[in-house]
Amino acid sequence: MRFLYLIVLFLSLQTVKSQNQFVPDDIPYKTALEKAKSEGKPLFIMLYADWCPHCNQMKKEVFSNPDVMAFLKENYVCIWKNIEKDEGITLKNKYNTKSLPTFLFLDANETLLYALKGEMKSPEFMTEVKYALNSRMQLPYLEKEFLSDPSNSDKFFAYLNTLKKGKDRTDLSPATHIYLNTQSDAQLISETNWRIIANGVTDIKSREFQFVLKHQKEFAVVASQNRVDRKIESIVTELLRPYVDNLDTVNYYKQREIAKLIRLQKTDSLVFKFDLTLAERTEKWQFYKKTTLENTQKLVWNDASFLKDIGQTYLKHINDPESLKKSIFWVKHSLEINDSYDVNLLLARLYNKVKDKKLALQYANDAKIICTEMTWSTKEVDTLLAELNTK
Questions:
Q1: Quick one: DSSP state of residue 135?
Q2: Of 133, 122, 23, 137, the residue nearest 75 (C-alpha)
Q3: Which residues, 6+ apart, have CB-to-CB distance to 39 below 8 Å?
Q4: What predicted TM-score, i.e. pTM, was given to this entire model?
Q5: How do residues 43-63 score in pLDDT, each as one tens digit?
Q6: Torsion of CA 363, 364, 367, 372, to 10 degrees
């Protein structure tokens, strides 16, 4: 009887688990549109990928919640599409999806009513899906209201704030420039217009961004210098990162010249880091070496973490002794800024590579002391010490 009881209990637990496990409705997109039209409901689409942890967490916590699913199925026709398969690929491209998960709310004519992106908890998600049912909170209404009076900052903010819930910053740019074109140069220097520039301007050559560059002190008064600096850095990042990610060296170097025209230390340092990232990913080690030898001390001298990263790259890919000695000089400065196990171990390995056993042993022993004090595993440094002591 005890054995039978355990079997019944196991099956009951499995039944409860299966009831709470999210199973997507895998119906074709066209069928869902037709169903939405016949039932007079909007269409809800989740775009996801199997490798996306935020997507999986939403499935586990939100879409396995019976209350959430009951509300969705009562008010929407729901489908879930993998962006790496068939219709998911088409929908990803059609709606310019760049973040996961993305949630699209469409009418039966495929008009985008509302969009969300990113991981949410059930209460936040439920609030948003209810907003998406309110016609006065949907994108078509908010866009129409804004375009009827494009100089009205309140109407623009209502549209912008809803738009950015489901879109990346580059998608906010067209509407932002419609509004900003109604503002004179003098009007741009205000807290309201700074917030709009910070959120919606992505074109490095735009009138508004160039005006910010020329009037940083004035904008720092209505915002702060830190916020102005972050905006300048983010617009350079948005300009260059896609070309680095796609290994598009031709267009990267064209756009790089535009970024360099800003002529600020902080942007030059950012461009330098992108240069090195692209060189690493394309394995252009001679270019990597030339760039670091010319600019490391000038542009990242006080960035301990980045100095360490450069040293790691030299350890793996650069072999001429003089350049390696230069990398040791940089890494030692990183150690001066932040004495750590990792940097001591790196210095030991670099000295070993240039065949300076005495200093390699010194830094390896320093690394082991730190490791022992922190009660970390000494396996890596012990291996290096054993190698050095056999030479």
A1: G
A2: 133
A3: 77
A4: 0.76
A5: 999 999 999 999 999 999 999
A6: -140
